[in-house]
C-alpha cells in the first residue's frame, strides 16, 4: 500500500539499483595501511568493518593523540583518493539489478521525485546510473562527502530531503543493507528493504524490518496497491 503523503523515494545504489565488483576488502586494507602509518595502533582496524567504523575509531585515536586538524585533513584526503580509485576501477563491471531501470521509469511516471544516496564517489554513482540507463530519471544524486554526515547518520537523509524540497515524512528510503535501515530509523523515515544485496530476509527480520521486497523491481506495484 502506498504510504500516505509519499512524494519522493531515495535509493541506495550498490546492491539496490546496481551490482558491481568494487574490491572493498582491498580498498579497506589500503586505507588501514595508511591509517596505521598515521598513529592508529596495528590490529585496531580490520577490513571486516565498514568505512564509517574505521574512520570513527581513527578519530577517537587521533583525539587522544591530539592530532592537528590539518594533519587529519591530509590523511582523510589520501583515504578519499583510495576509495575513489577503487570505485572508479569497478565501473566496467557495473550492471543493473534486474528490472531496476524499468522500476525507476515507472516510479517517475507515477509522479515521485527520485534520489540516490550513496557512500560511494559521486562520479562513480553518476556513471553507474548513466551506464544502466537510469540517470535521466533521478532528480538528485548524492555521493560521499556531499551530506553533512554519511549514512547511517540521520543527517544524510535530512540533507537529501531538504535538497529534494520535501519533508522527512514525505520520503521513502530503499536499501539493501542494515546501514540503510539504521539511517532511515535515525531520521524517522519510512524504509523498504530489498534482497538484492548481501542481507538476507532472516537478517532483515532480526533488524525488525517488516517491509521486505525481493527487488526494487517490485516497488512500483507495492506502492500502487490499494
Provide a concise account of the structure shown.
By secondary structure, the chain is of the alpha/beta class.
Write the layout of secondary structure elements.
Layout: E1 8-11, E2 18-19, H1 24-36, H2 51-65, H3 69-89, E3 95-96, H4 100-109, E4 113-117, H5 122-131, E5 140-142, H6 154-164, E6 171-175, H7 178-187, E7 190-194, H8 201-206, E8 212-213, H9 219-224
Parallel strand pairs: 1-4, 1-6, 4-5, 6-7, 7-8
Antiparallel strand pairs: 2-3
What report would you give on this structure?
- The structure is a single chain.
- The chain is α/β, with parallel strands linked by helices.
- It has two domains: 8-20 and 94-224, 3-Layer(aba) Sandwich (Rossmann fold); 24-89.
- It is built from nine helices and eight strands.
- It has helices at residues 24-36, 51-65, 69-89, 100-109, 122-131, 154-164, 178-187, 201-206, 219-224, and strands at residues 8-11, 18-19, 95-96, 113-117, 140-142, 171-175, 190-194, 212-213.
- The strands form two sheets. Strands 5-4-1-6-7-8 form a six-stranded parallel β-sheet, with helices on both faces.
- Helix 6 (154-164) packs across helix 7.
- The radius of gyration is 18 Å and the shape is globular.
Features:
2 domains, 45% helix, 9 helices, globular, 12% strand, two-stranded antiparallel sheet, 226 residues, Rossmann fold, alpha/beta, 6-stranded parallel sheet
Amino acid at each position: 500500500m502506498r504510504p500516505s503523503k509519499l512524494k519522493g523515494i531515495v535509493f541506495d545504489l550498490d546492491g539496490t539499483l546496481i551490482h558491481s565488483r568494487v574490491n572493498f576488502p582491498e580498498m579497506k586494507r589500503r586505507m588501514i595501511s595508511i591509517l596505521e602509518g598515521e598513529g592508529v595502533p596495528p590490529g585496531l582496524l580490520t577490513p571486516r568493518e565498514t568505512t564509517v567504523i574505521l574512520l570513527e575509531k581513527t578519530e577517537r585515536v587521533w583525539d587522544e593523540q591530539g592530532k592537528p586538524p590539518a594533519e587529519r585533513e591530509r590523511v582523510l584526503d589520501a583515504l578519499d583518493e583510495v576509495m575513489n580509485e577503487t570505485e572508479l576501477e569497478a565501473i566496467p563491471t557495473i550492471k543493473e539489478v534486474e528490472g531496476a531501470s524499468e522500476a525507476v521509469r515507472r516510479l517517475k511516471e507515477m509522479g515521485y521525485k527520485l534520489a540516490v544516496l550513496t557512500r560511494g564517489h559521486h562520479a562513480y554513482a553518476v556513471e553507474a546510473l548513466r551506464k544502466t540507463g537510469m540517470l535521466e530519471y533521478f532528480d538528485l544524486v548524492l555521493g560521499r562527502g556531499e551530506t553533512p554526515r554519511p549514512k547511517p547518520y540521520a543527517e544524510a537523509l535530512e540533507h537529501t530531503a531538504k535538497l529534494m524540497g520535501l519533508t522527512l515524512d514525505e520520503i521513502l528510503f530503499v536499501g539493501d543493507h542494515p546501514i540503510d535501515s539504521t539511517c532511515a530509523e535515525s531520521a524517522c523515515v519510512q524504509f523498504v528493504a530489498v534482497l538484492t544485496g548481501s542481507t538476507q530476509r532472516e537478517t532483515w527480520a532480526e533488524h525488525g524490518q517488516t517491509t521486505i521486497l525481493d527487488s526494487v523491481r517490485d516497488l512500483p506495484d507495492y506502492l500502487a496497491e490499494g
